[in-house]
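agent> step 3/5: call structure_predict on target 'DUF6168 family protein' (Gaetbulibacter aquiaggeris).
agent> reason: downstream docking stage needs a structural representation; sequence fetched in step 2, passing through unchanged.
tool.input:
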Amino acid sequence: MRNPFIDFTIKATILLGIVFFIHLGVLRTWNFPVFDDRIVLCYAVNFALIIIVFGSLYLLKEKYKSQLGFLFLAGSFLKFTVFFIVFYPFFKMDNHISKLEFAAFFVPYSIGLILETFSLSKWLNKLD
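tool.output (status=ok):
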């Protein structure tokens, strides 16, 4: 049986890599600054957080099997906390969060959340 954490990490790397390059291509096509709005940091931090959250759930699966859903929600709370500590002050410096700043964070966040949700759901169904 393959390791779900390794499979998840590979999927997350490939999916976020593809989405990152598509995101850059869209910015370039519409003549927006490509590497502004801390886009690289947003993708890197979101990638690290989804790996940490999923990895933590994987490590805690036996001991806290019935609480994994709540731990998943705690991971989402962690991601929002990191956003407000790391990114929000920079995005809010001009008293306005632009659509490009929002997209720089929200695109990798939402892709990661969708991947986590589907992977965790599939993985948890196999545990029963």
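agent> step 4/5: record observation. The two ends are 16 Å apart (CA to CA).
agent> proceeding.
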